[in-house]
Amino acid sequence: MKIKEKISLEEVFGKEYKIRLFEPENNQEAVITHYLHNSKNGVSQFFKKDAVKFTKEILQNKFPQENITNLVAEDALQYGIFETFDIPFPPVETPKFKFIDLFAGIGGFRLAMQNLGGKCVFTSEWDKEAKRTYKANFGERPFGDITKEETKAFIPNGFDLLCAGFPCQAFSIAGKRGGFEDTRGTLFFEVAEIIKRKKPKAIFLENVKGLRNHNGGKTLATILNVLRNDLGYYVPEPQIINAKDFGVPQNRERIYIVGFRADLGIDSFKYPKPLKKKVAFSQVKEKNVPPTKYFLSTQYVQTLINHKERHESKGNGFGFAIIPDDGISNAIVVGGMGRERNLVLDHRIKDFTPTTHIKGTVNREGIRKMTPREWARLQGFPDKYVIPVADASAYKQFGNSVAVPAIQATANKILELIGITNDNGK
Ligand SMILES: C[S@@+](CC[C@H](N)C(=O)[O-])C[C@H]1O[C@@H](n2cnc3c(N)ncnc32)[C@H](O)[C@@H]1O
After folding, report:
1. How many domains, the chain?
2. CA-to-CA distance for 424 and 347, rounded, in angstroms?
3. Are residues 41 and 143 in the same domain?
4. Among 9, 12, 116, 168, which one carries the catalytic annotation?
């Protein structure tokens, strides 16, 4: 039997499917999409056995009368039974290097690496909504919890670069040194474990600026000690990089840690220089923003102003700031409990007219929140990047993400050193 009918992955794994075949957190869709995305680079063989197994289950469920053998399933997979490439950022046709995308969020690293000619061969992210955004843009569903051995088992060998923006946690250091074992139980340990097993040529880690002084500097010292002494990587002094220096109007400082496998003999690294070009908020500003959705009520504006006046001296003003057209944004982040803390970034719109003012609900000055699209632009995501989730999730996702241009400029320097030249990232 040959199955020639096309099946969309949405049909199998999406909401419409009445009988849930799989638990949402299982890796089936991740396996199948990873298999399909790697068909041209030899990595797909790594996912093949499981991909065939899951395809067989899907087909058996769809065609209960048929006898679906492994061969039928394999044939169906090869025929291209699943449609996945109708997406804004398909895999690079002739990749220059391979990378993995850990703690992938919505794929800020992935976008930068694909721009530089990279092919993602494994991605992991456990947040359901972030996975949705990731898949809508890259056509690939990330694997889940990276702390699980069954997830790590899907990481192929032979990739060049490991990318990870891992959440920062303190280590309880037993000995003086702060070595590999002391990091056990943290997410950095997972990153270190993967480096140890897979030995990629280079690593690129990103974290909040506060990592530098976290736990009196011990957290960073331990990370560097593990990477340098336990794993044998050349790791230059980490650098604080500001997104605003790389073409986006956002004052976002993050710490970048890069490393190179010792046998490559690399012993110096230069972070990219800030670009001369400065960009103002007006360049990311959306026109024709719906008044009812993003404009704030008079009362709310007053609450923010009062709160700011009372607390700003203590450094706590809800992050409320009115940004002039020629200014730049504060760092976009979402606070605890999903509150838009430090992100009620408003903008006084010059051309606001009373006709757009809805009586009693919208403030007269035309102060509004930034839109998710403006947040996307502040992080350097192009407008073809799809935002398939509700606003609350979108703010969280872009706030958690990386500034793509700054990541790309740094990755370009890493790639040059490991012999992968590129002009795109300059
Ligand atoms: C700081 S964000 C990184 C965002 C990413 N660099 C981007 O461009 O969107 C960290 C991410 O790690 C994910 N995460 C945390 N623990 C995880 C785990 N155990 N397994 C997989 N993902 C995890 C979170 O859901 C979050 O999206």
Report:
1. 3
2. 33
3. no
4. 168
Q: Which of 273, 288, 290, 269 is nearest to 361 (CA)?
A: 290
Whether residues 124 and 241 share a domain: the answer is: yes
Q: Which atom of ligand 1 is nearest to the CA of 206?
A: 6
Annotation marks residue 120 as catalytic: no
* Residue to probe by mutation, ligand 1, list 125, 189, 190, most atoms within 8 Å of CB: 125
Provide the pLDDT for residue 71.
87
Q: 166 with 249, same domain? A: yes
Mark whether 108 and 201 lie in a shared domain. Answer: yes
How does pLDDT run across 23-49, given as a tens digit for each residue?
Answer: 455 788 899 889 888 877 778 888 888
Residue 180's pLDDT band (cuts 50, 70, 90): confident
From CA 151, how far away is CA 299, in angstroms rounded? 49
- Asked whether residue 62 falls in the same domain as residue 178, the answer is no
Q: Phi and psi dihedrals of 345, rounded to 5? A: -90, 110
Count of alpha carbons within 13 angstroms of residue 240, beta-carbon side: 10
Q: Return the CATH number at 137.
A: 3.40.50.150
Burial grade of 14 (CB within 10 A; 0-12, 13-18, 19 or more): exposed
Distance between Cα 135 and ligand 1 center (Å)? 15
Residue nearest to atom 22 of ligand 1 (CA): 125
Q: Which domain holds residue 79?
A: 7-83
The answer to whether the beta carbons of residues 254 and 403 sit under 8 Å apart is yes
Of 103, 132, 141, 190, the one to substitute when testing ligand 1's pocket (max ligand atoms within 8 A of C-beta) is 103
Tokens standing for 361?
Answer: 């609900």
| Nearest C-alpha neighbor of 408 from the set 51, 99, 139, 63 | 99
Residues 297 and 357 both lie in one domain: yes
